[in-house]
Design goal:
The protein starts with a helix and ends with a strand. It folds into two domains: about 60 residues, no CATH class; about 70 residues, no CATH class. Helix 1 packs across helix 4. The chain contains four helices and eight strands, in the order H-H-H-H-E-E-E-E-E-E-E-E. The strands form two sheets. The protein has a six-stranded antiparallel beta sheet, with no helix packed on it. About 5% of the residues have low confidence.
Length: about 160
């Protein structure tokens, strides 16, 4: 039993000793992640190889954590309470024909907005019309589509 322990404990110590370096090997080094110009501008080229290794190991052990805000119903929160909301001007990505109750508007800036009221409006057939989104009372937004006779529409951001 004692002989097994003598062999087993050093093997465990060796495995545990290798764990941090294997984790660091999975994460790209700063030199791999940055351009030469960025690396030089941050003065990281002044660090010794050992100091750079320690910094890379620390970064690998402390990965960036991204916090995503969601409502209790798991909808994303795009503007935290009190955060400034500014007018958005872009274009519809594709053809606009109006809205029918649950219309989703895909915009050229990558955002998506969903109709938040039950109204309907036949807006003709417009290709990539300009849109303006204005912050309204509370957390609501108003969507204005150029080139049609539809009134402003209450929408909520969905992407």
């Amino acid at each position: 039993m004692q002989n097994r322990t003598r062999v087993f404990l050093p093997a465990i110590a060796l495995i545990v000793g290798l764990l941090p370096s294997s984790r660091a090997a999975e994460t790209p080094t700063l030199q791999e992640r940055m351009s030469k110009e960025e690396f030089h501008a941050a003065e990281l080229d002044k660090l010794s190889p050992a100091a750079l290794r320690r910094l890379d190991d620390w970064l690998a052990a402390h990965p960036l954590t991204v916090t995503r805000l969601v409502t209790p119903s798991n909808k994303p929160v795009f503007y935290a309470d009190g955060a400034p909301r500014e007018r958005i001007e872009t274009r519809i990505d594709g053809v606009f024909t109006g809205w029918t109750g649950k219309t989703v508007f895909k915009l050229q800036n990558g955002q998506e907005w969903t109709q938040a009221e039950s109204s309907r409006c036949a807006g003709g057939k417009l290709h990539n019309p300009k849109v303006k989104l204005e912050p309204a009372m509370g957390n609501s937004w108003l969507l204005f589509v150029s080139g049609n006779d539809c009134d402003a529409l209450h929408v909520e951001r969905s992407k």
